[in-house]
Amino acid sequence: MLRRDITYILLFILLAIAFFPGCGQKPQEQELTSITIAFQEWVGYGPFYLAQEKGFCKEDGIELVFVEEHLDSARCDAFNQGMLDCEAGTIDLLVSKVAQGTPIVAVMEIDQSFGSDAIVAAETITTLEDLKGKRVALARDDVGETLLSALFYKKGLSLNSVIIVSKHPEEVAGAFLNGEADACVTWEPQVTEALGRPGAHIITSNREHPGIIIDTLNVRRDLVENNPGLVKKLMRNWFRALKYYNEHPLEASEIIAKYYKITPEQYRKQVQGLTWDDYEQQRSAAEGREWADAFNAIAEVKLANARISRKPDASKFLTHTLLEKLYEDSK
Amino acid sequence: MKIANKISFSFFAIAIILTSAVGTILYLVAREDLQKSIYNKLDTVVASRANHIETYLKMLEISVGQLSKSTVLENFLKTSGKEDIRQGESFEKAMKRLARTKEANPSIAEFLLMDRIGKVIASSNESSVGIDKSSDSFFFGGQKDTYIKDAYYFEAYKEPLIAVSAPFLDSNTGEFLGVIAARVRLNDLNNIVREKTGLGDTGEIYIVNKYGFMVTHSRFKKDLVLKQRVDTQNVREARLHEGREHPLSEKKKINVFPGYRGVQVLGAHEYISQMKWAVLAEIDASEVFRPLVKIRLVFLAILFIVPLTAWLVGIFIAKLITDPLHKLHKGTEIIGSGNLDCKVGTDAKDEVGQLSRAFDEMVENLKKNTTSIENLNKEIAGRKKTEDVLKVLEKKYRSLVENIPDVVWTTDINGSTIFISPNVEKIYGYTPEEIYKGSDETWFDRIHPDDKEKVKRTFIKLFEKKELYDIEYRIKSKDGKWIWLYDRATEVYEKNGIKYADGIFSEITERKKTEEALKESEGKFRAIFDNVNDGILLADTEIKKFYTGNNTACQMLGYSLEEIKNLGVTDIHPEEDLPYVIEQFERQVRKEIAVAKDLPVKRKDGSVFYADVNTSSVALAGRTYLLGIFRDITERKKLEEQLQINKASFYNIVEKSTDGVIVVDKEGIVQFINHAAENLFGHKAEDMIGEMFGFPVVTDEVMELDVIRNGKEPGIAEMRVVETQWEDHGARLALLRDITERKGVEEKLKETIRMKSVFISTVSHELRTPLTAIKGGIDLVLDGLAGNINEEQKEVLDISKKNVDRLTRLINNVLDFQKLNSGKMKFNLEANDINQIVKDVYKTMNTPAKATGPDILLELDTSLPRCSFDSDMITQVLTNLVNNAMKFTEKGNITIKTSKTEDAVLVSVSDTGCGIRKEDISKLFNNFEQLGHGGERKTGGTGLGLAISKEIVVRHGGMIWAESEHGKGSKFTFTLPMWTNLLDNI
Asked: Chain A neighbours among B 151-190 (CB < 8 Å)?
């Protein structure tokens, strides 16, 4: 009997010790794998913020680290050094980067600008031809230059016929507003900002010329090859966020708009100038070589304007293999 | 649980709970204080180092900025591009200036001077001169302001560096001349973070860049710079606390978390916004909480000692309380066993002592009363026992008489009932009292007239000859019904000179009814036996002669029943079949078989028919008979033969069918496969029948299967499945058709459509570009920019311009139509006011320049809700309708009207023009259909306008139609659905 009592007492004491702070093992939190992603301030990338804030990424064991890096050359450095995992950017910048040997591959489309990228000009300028001899503000090696050079290329005009006012991407509209330039080539929300100049109007936009400005998710090549599962998680969460946005536009735009320091209404208005394709649409677009066609067309323009020294092979830098795998996983 | 244990455990439990609670609170407070104190120290240190780093970066910017003001370098930049950069005095001076500045700054690895296009024109390292750095971020970033390039590994120097660059501007004009950049070693940064004062044995400070990679050396591991990704809570929080307004901003958390080495650390952080660097100070948690180890040991010792002591004290106190109780308990046990002389009283003055003494007094009183009570009890017990025996016997007898189903009676020689058991009432209806009392009708009077004499005789014999009887008779019960009784006299005796008899009767009415029913049933059975469709013969198994048979057997064989009774088994079968028939008969007798199939049976007239004979053994009057049921199967045999013929022709048809036919049972097993199906699957029928089919067979669905035709080439088969019967079981019939060729044609068709789409897009795009140039050229000439032109030339050019415009419209329409058809046209749906669109179109079309032609009138319903549509698209539709109206209305009005129905908004454009012929209205919305309103073709349109309009409206969920009376005008109306609820949510 005494032995049994002593056993109970010892058990009590051991239990008390086990619950004593510092003696028990704390439960470990789930380890999250970080993915660094760089992009400029463009409303089309908003669903990445949504995926992070709604906890979709965390559920999948990943955490997105948003890197603000406006300089494309700095991003190239980071990719070359193996420090940046992926970026969201336009297909023209992809052409420039891969032509320089940056080790990246585009794995899916993020959005297509459909009227968001535009050429805004002063009242007297109404056609592209009117730009001849005029000062045009744009960001060199950026979407603005691509749109203008692609349109000029189609019309047989030379970029040398205009005076380029080279600006940082975020300063293009400002240069037009303060009279430094007669026209500017930029994107939303700067298009709206530029239209604030009296008499300013859009002479053309990619609504009339779709297929030039496509944003893609570009991922470091070694990551695609060695850890495709991680990349798939990122893609899956993008599509999940897109779906959520479509189903709950009010809540989603409220979350995203904070990052752009605009109102949710403004955000919803601005994204009307772009299209987000789900992965079913993207699969068919990829199969239909829409990406490759855009890539090749832009590469030709860049080559003709001597912005690149050789035309890169689209098949090496665009892949829809992961989209296909994502589709197979979903079945 | 015993009281002693309860007390000792209570002491122990209270002690351990109190000790644990107090100890835990003290420990947590101490831990919190310690953690906070060390965190504050880390926070102070990391803030100081972050300031130091920011100052250092500022110094670098200033240094490079000062160099960008160098006159020597400015002069050199101004001359660059004019001659070979390596020639000339200014190059030498610039190179020396850069080399000297580098010598003065040991942390600078290299200075680079780049011209306005990014080419290196001077450097502290001569081998860098001439390199194109236009695509380097320090050139791009340094064009506008001072820029610091984040840490990167420089292959040429085999070490990590940062780069600082600044623009070089003309000191007079401010014109951009180039960029000066310095590549900086990380030594100074490492020195700043290496200082460990206030960081203890395991503390360290390091920098992590915006990509999460370590920029400075680790204290614990070598070679981690720009290789170690640091993905810790400290880094994440540093990013949140970068000092800018951020939606995720929150206060700093003091927390212990796993560090980059995997060990638990306590960390603090600062954020350097300029570089987006996190400066992190961390110290191992084991070191932070080392002082707590002693506290924990002391607590554990207390946790052992205090509860154990409390337990021992509890045991001692429990003993003091429970010892007198134990003594009292023992005494009660002795008294309980019968010893009333036992004393449990103690001298104790407490409650237990008083209780023990009171208990002794109670036992003494008890002892006195015990003897007298025992004697009284014994007497009462004896009487009670006798009464109980009598009661039991009486109860048993009553129960016996009342519960047996038969009625017990005693009567005297006069027939008066002396006793009758009470259950007579259940049978007869009268109670015993009514019977004893007697009435006008005696028992004998109520007996059935047919039985009365028999009963009377028997009763007389009973008393005269003492012959006990045993008879059945009917008697009228109280309710007037006749009931049958089975009455038995069991004894006759004499008592006090009077003769009595005892007996017993029971009711047998039901039994009698059953016997009657049985007789009736036998009659019915015979009728059925004779009239069943099958012939029945009963044959003796030994002599094989027939005992009897039914009418059907007689008719079947052509014999009378009497004749059959004289026949044997061998008489009703053809002689040549007798061995087989006899063998079957013998086997049926031995019960080896129940049915003999297809037996030939010979009629009286010698003709033969076939019958299945089903037999069973029957025992009658001690003999065994074989009951044979003969079923004439002649007709069935004929049908079966016909079925065989039909089946053969069915197989012939199915086998020759060019479509595959497969029958699969409910389990998916192939039961039949025809030749065409063999070819489709490349397997023979014998290989497939009895095997699983392998494809899902779903009724009422059409599936496409991949097949190997003739076992050689791949193909596609279309399978349709219907329910069927196969050998009396449910099955599925799969009909397969080879559609390989059809599929090929379809694929080619799709490819052709796709190529058409691409062709139209390409041709249209390619046509537009030269057209724009042509139009521009015509405009230039018309505006007089290419010299003056006369009126005739102007007229020709006007016509050309109109045709170019028309061609452009045609191409645009073709492109729009192509986009709509291919689904590439994106619709930008949003809430819009249709009246506003109408007003806009009105403004556009009713320009001051439009001096002639019809007037445009508006009739707008101002109460219309906002609808969801693409404003550009609907503007295009409306413009097209108004344009058409204007084209065909020379005089009069064009009215644009808006209105609404319950669920849609209506927009109509009506004119007073020439109208459309009735037979042409149905063609209006066809592609490339171009009609004049009078029916005659007019040029000036593409023939796609209305087709495009229709497609746009239909894509919005609306409808478009036209009404017209030839010569009086036309009215085109389209609708847009009102989805007001949806819009409220936008």
From this structure: 152-153
